[in-house]
Amino acid sequence: MTLAPIFTPRRMLRSDLTLIITGAVAFIALCLLFSPFVADDAFIVGRYANNAVHGQGLVYNPGEYVSALTSPLHALVETVLALCGLPPVGSYRILAPLLVLAGWFIAIREHGLSHAELMLFTAAALFSPFLALWTVGGLETPILASLATLFTSRLVVISQRGSAKGYDFPWLGALAGLMFLTRYDSALVTVPPLIAILTIERRRPALWAGATLGILLAASWLVFAELYYGDVFPTSYYVKFVLGTRPRIDSLSTTLNFPLLSGLILPLLIRPRVKVANQPALSKAILLGAAVSLSLFLFYALRTS
User: Fold this and answer.
1) 3-class SS at 1?
2) Distance CA 24, CA 34 (A)
């Protein structure tokens, strides 16, 4: 049995390569501009990683099995870095921009974008000040950004093709599972399009293999957290989701501000080339799932941002 490639390379023009190199360098420069900033929570995760490496458990205080980890995958990555003898927070902050660039570059290779599309995608994907700040801020943002870019890219490929190949399902399942391990609330983004795909492709064994993979990845941490900490949720969840703790106007202004400064407003200026009515059934399902995801995410952002 042969495995199909995850992406199909395309021949790039010299102008494309110049743009890619320029975009990557500019993003690194933007990250360096924000590099003096380190979030307090980054050092919390670093302490968990150091304690784990020194045999005191994945805990903040030895002997106190309490989870403050909103991103299990982030903690595991820093634990691996600490196992390699590296300072978990500092080395992770160096690795972080490379994670973002990897997701961006793989997405480019998957799609074979025109030069104009490449410029737009690079501007939206790399030049958000929010992304640069939190990429070097020491938190899970670069991991989630890379995984979400790859997840969305795969959905776009399937939608444009109008059909899914067997290897698409394990790829989507793995990415969705890893995104859940990065942030639980990523399920708001991943689950609706996956359910939409399920309604069309439910008779294909590869789909159920991908779904099983994603569920196993997510469940592995939930089971561990329940057995190890006695709770599947970190302590901060019980604080952040208490209703009425901050004015709604703050969340509204933040939500409106985000698409402007993040660059996400740019794709909205581009008119769709193909009418939805002309799309294959699978493409329509993915678009519907994406619309549901966007609605759920907007509601969530208005409550918590």
Assistant:
1) coil
2) 16
Can you name the residues that pair with 64 across neighbouring β-strands? 61
The pairs formed by 74-77 with CB atoms below 8 angstroms and a separation of 24 or more are 74/45, 74/139, 74/140, 74/143, 74/182, 75/45, 75/48, 75/49, 76/181, 77/143
> For residues 210 and 173, what is the distance between their CA atoms, to the nearest angstrom?
5
At residue 243, the pLDDT reads: 53
The first and second tokens of residue 212, run together, are 């099983």
Residue closest to 177 by CA, chosen among 206, 228, 211, 225:
211
* Residue bearing tokens 């690194």: 28
Q: What local confidence, expressed as pLDDT, does residue 266 receive? A: 66
Determine contact, residues 192/290, Cβ cutoff 8 Å: yes
Mean pLDDT (the chain) is: 87
Residues 6+ apart with CB under 8 A from 132: 27, 30, 31, 33, 34
Q: Where are the beta strands (DSSP E) in the chain?
A: none
Cβ(136)–Cβ(31) below 8 Å = yes
Which amino acid is located at 131 in the chain?
L
User: For the whole model, what pTM was predicted?
Assistant: 0.87
DSSP letter at 280? -
Return the structure tokens found at 236: 């901060």
Number of other CB atoms surrounding residue 149 within 10 Å? 22
